[in-house]
Amino acid sequence: MNKNLAITLVELEATVDGRLEGKPARDIYSLLRMPARGLPILEAVCRAGGYRDVVSLDPEFNKGTKQKLTPAQWRRLAESDVVGLSAITRTANQSYELATRLRQMNPRLKIVFGGPHTTALPEEALQFGDVVVLHEGDHTFPELLDRFDDDFENPSLRDLAGICYNGPGGEFCRTAERPFLSSEELSRLPFPVLSRETLDAITHMVVNTSRGCPFECEFCSVIENFGKQFRFLDDDATIALLQDTLRMTRKTLFFGDDIFAANRARTKRILERVLREGIRLPRWFAQVRVESAQDKELLALMKRSHCSTVFIGLESVNAETLKLYNKHATVERNRQAIENYHRAGIKVHGMFVLGSDADTAQTIDDTLRFSREMRLDTAQFFALTAVPGPPLTRRLQKEGRVLCWGQWHLFDAQHAVVQSHQISPLELQKGIFEASKKFYSVHDAVGRLFSGQHRWFNFLIRLEGKYLARRIVKDNRDYVDSLRQLHEWHDRLAEEARQLAQHVRKVVDDWSLELEAKRVRLRSYLSETYKRYSETSVPEEYRIYWKRKVESTLAAIQSHFEAALPPSEPARQTD
User: Fold this and answer.
1) 287 bridge partner residues
2) Which of 40, 193, 432, 573 reaches 20 to 30 Å from 255, CA-CA?
3) Ranges of the chain whose pLDDT falls below 70
4) Are 60 and 35 in contact (CB under 8 A)?
5) Residue 381 — φ and ψ, nearest 5°?
6) How far is the C-alpha of 284 from the C-alpha of 209, rounded, in Å?
7) What is the distance between the alpha carbons of residues 153 and 76, in angstroms, rounded to a whole number?
8) What residues contact 260, with CB distance under 8 A and at least 6 apart?
9) What does the alpha-carbon distance between residue 171 and residue 173 come to, in Å, rounded to a whole number?
């Protein structure tokens, strides 16, 4: 087979407004510059499959043209046969914009989407592209390229497992599910490919040695994308991957595994081999669960092999919230884990998800207090976010509690996009911003300079974090203002509902009216109120949510007072 397709892979950076050429969005990870996780391995498997003309583009690293594709990159995209776009939820809209523009430039182009967002919403993505590769693309994507190479205009896709595509008549087609790669298959994958430009631009390198997660946290999309079971590279493949990575760069390593020490025996074997074989790892950090902190031998090996920091999803200081998240953790176990890692000389980055139905404004204050008391080295205060896919999102959508579905740039855990029971989106938004500003403050920076471990790191990171937190708040002032307006509408609707309930009660208690007349008047009140509030000029992003909110509020009133009406009334006495 003559494999001459020109293939370009793209992963875009998040932007403040969700536009392709918008201002880059910022979060704590903006202090790090890491390569894309998926594209380097995808480029490698394409090359291993015989495709030589494969290029990966990461516009984040374009010098002097932040987020904007260079003229040369635009030419490359427009002249490609196949463009693969990898999208997470916060980058979906700009990915769709890029696809639209490329289609205008080259109608013959095959546009293929992959990544968590388009796996969850393939029908949405197929409005802008030809094929969606679901879940893992390591085997699916090169097989798809073979179908294109065999018959570019009319490829045979019906029996290609693990994709969705637009059929001949534009109909939505979904093929059979493709099993997740086994540990043996993962171990046989080629090493990731990164360009010299990317290696020069990054500050931290990413290494992935496992996939999947059996812990069913309600808000997390890992299981949706990588399955319920851990799958690990075998020991030899892991060591070989590390050695290949170190040949490319010796910059700080980030183990991108969702839970680095998921199998503690395996992790200890790997680290023991690293030390025994004299593999000098640079400083490295990884994501872990609190259980790993109970293994003193593991912590000692991590420290000896130059582990600098662990990222721990602590999630909450509210015990009820931990239960709601299905986290299988306690505040005390979280506290003990932080202490154990600090005792081992390893820094802790704590991550919290605020805004559950058990959280209040006080929970945010308690979380900040906990972060300071435990002397977390760094912290992130996330808003509970209904990204497409997880069980939480399906439940919240059914209940009509997702604020701005489709405005995907806001689904980045920095924006309050969910209506919870005890804290308003406005309170949550202001609360997480305020928590970040207080945690990363000059006062805390100076305090950490004169006590505790890693003094200069903690001093400098707080100064950097202070600048970053202010920039994030500034970039999102318009969204805070829109939440304030939404909050005021909620208050007015609640007051209107209270007054309406009083009116309807009077109608129910009015014995001068026949039963049917009461129902007519009740429906008239509800209809007038619905018309008035459904036509409220809310911003476009809230229209769907607001309509459902008005409908559910008035439906509750109608149901309550319909139940209060008797099925029949006694005849009225006459003089």
Assistant:
1) 311
2) 432
3) 1-2, 63-67, 535-537, 564-575
4) no
5) -115, 100
6) 14
7) 21
8) 267, 286, 287, 288, 292, 310
9) 6
Rounded to 5°, angle at Cα 517 from 514 and 522: 130
Residue 167 CB partners (closer than 8 Å, separation 6+) = 173
Q: Is 11 exposed, middle or buried (0-12, 13-18, 19+ CB in 10 A)?
A: buried
Distance CA 386, CA 400 (A): 12
Domains of the chain: 7-174 (3.40.50.280), 203-387 (3.20.20.70), 480-564 (no CATH)
Instruction: Answer whether 84's CB lies under 8 Å from 11's CB.
Output: no
Which phi and psi angles does 71 have, rounded to 5°? -55, -40
Which pLDDT score, from 0 to 100, does residue 535 have?
A: 63
**pLDDT score of 484:** 93
Distances (CA, A) of 504 to 6, 21, 392, 489, 500: 68, 53, 36, 22, 6
228, 135 contact by CB (below 8 A): no
d(CA 119, CA 166): 15
Amino acid at 16: V
pLDDT computed for residue 572 by the predictor: 45
pLDDT tens-digit profile of 437-446?
999 999 999 9
Angstrom CA distances, 410 to 217, 265, 407, stand at 21, 40, 6
**Helix then strand then coil, % of the chain, to nearest 5:** 50, 15, 40
Q: What are phi and psi of 433, to 5 degrees?
A: -65, -45
Counting other chains too, the contacts that 52-55 makes at CB distance below 8 Å and 24 or more residues apart are 52/3, 53/4, 53/5, 53/6, 53/7, 54/7, 54/8, 54/9, 55/7, 55/8, 55/9
Dihedral of CA atoms 464, 465, 471, 473 in degrees, nearest 10, equals -170
**Alpha-helix residue ranges (DSSP H) falling in 382-514:** 391-398, 425-439, 442-449, 455-475, 477-509
Rounded CA-CA distance 1/50 in Å is: 9
- Provide the β-strand partners of residue 207: 255
Q: Is 6 exposed, middle or buried (0-12, 13-18, 19+ CB in 10 A)?
A: middle
What is the model's pLDDT at position 498? 85
Q: Would you say the C-alpha torsion 519, 523, 524, 529 has a positive or negative sign?
A: positive
Residue 332: CB atoms within 10 A of its CB come to: 9
DSSP state of 519: H
- CA atoms 527, 528, 531, 533: torsion sign: negative
Note the pLDDT tens digit of each residue in 480-512: 999 998 998 888 888 888 887 887 778 777 778
